[in-house]
Design goal:
Chain lengths: 168, 102
């Protein structure tokens, strides 16, 4: 087993156990902290996939903004989450079964597909993915339109969030 | 070397955990956390397919960037809704939000 494989297995194990804690822990503040660990694990996975830019964006956007926003919201609604009853609703068994069935189904599909054994192609000859990504996002014959639509969407979401949460 | 299936299995497990979180949790904020897990699993898949496919086609990463932006927008609006709801009904339990049920 090579070093990369061991690193991947450690990262995957940490990420999945943290994700498991996110969906099961009764205390939501702890859940948000486990979510931060999960997001770090996903950032590490991006590094393993040579997507350095996305790893940095993952840390800045997901951990720096989204997870912190979650913690803020949890603390603003804190009175509710102090109730010490079960944190799952009545049909959690169905939900667990559904998740399990989905996972087993995808695993079975993957076992049959030919893409399973694909190995990582070498990076040497290829252009720098960060340069490529930057050019493609502002090039008129590539993805400039989705890029601009995404910024308009963010603006709309910001205004919408302010309006919805406005104290009357 | 790591084969593609490892990443896909990892992402599938993460997605299933997120799905369980969305379906089973009571608290609306916990449901949003489950959605974040699912979006992250999708992002891993997108980037893995870029890495194992043609490296000159950067579409996988572009798609992941768009998913980041949409996730940020979704969380901002979702949490604003939860806070507004908490002000009006003093509850963030998804089962108790039945204003539009008949």
């Amino acid at each position: 087993m090579s070093g990369l494989e061991i690193i991947f297995l450690v990262v995957a194990a940490v990420t999945l156990s943290a994700a498991f804690m996110v969906v099961t822990t009764p205390n939501l503040v702890h859940g948000a902290l486990w979510l931060v660990l999960t997001l770090f694990g996903v950032a590490a996975t991006f590094v393993l996939l040579n997507a350095a830019f996305l790893a940095v964006v993952q840390v800045v956007v997901y951990i720096g903004a989204i997870a912190i926003l979650m913690i803020f919201a949890i603390m603003l609604t804190r009175k509710v989450m102090q109730d010490s009853g079960p944190q799952t609703n009545a049909n959690w068994i169905v939900a667990a079964l559904l998740g399990l069935v989905l996972f087993v189904g995808i695993a079975q599909l993957l076992r049959k597909s030919s893409a399973v054994g694909m190995m990582m192609p070498a990076m040497d000859g290829a252009a720098d993915p960060v340069v490529q990504l930057g050019e493609v996002l502002v090039s008129p014959n590539a993805y400039v339109l989705p890029f601009e639509v995404a910024s308009v969407l963010l603006l709309a979401a910001m205004i919408g969030a302010i309006v919805v949460a406005w104290k009357k | 070397m790591i084969s593609l299936s490892w990443f896909l299995i990892f992402a599938a497990a993460l997605f299933s955990l997120g799905l369980y979180g969305v379906l089973a949790r009571k608290n609306a904020i916990a449901i949003l956390m489950g959605i974040e897990l699912m979006l992250n699993a999708v992002n891993i898949n997108l980037v893995a397919f870029w890495r194992y496919g043609d490296l000159a086609l950067i579409t996988g990463q572009v798609f992941a960037v768009i998913v980041f932006a949409v996730a940020a927008a979704e969380v901002a609006v979702g949490l604003a809704l939860v806070i507004s709801l908490y002000r009006r009904r003093s509850s963030v339990v998804a089962d108790e939000i039945n204003l539009m049920k008949w």
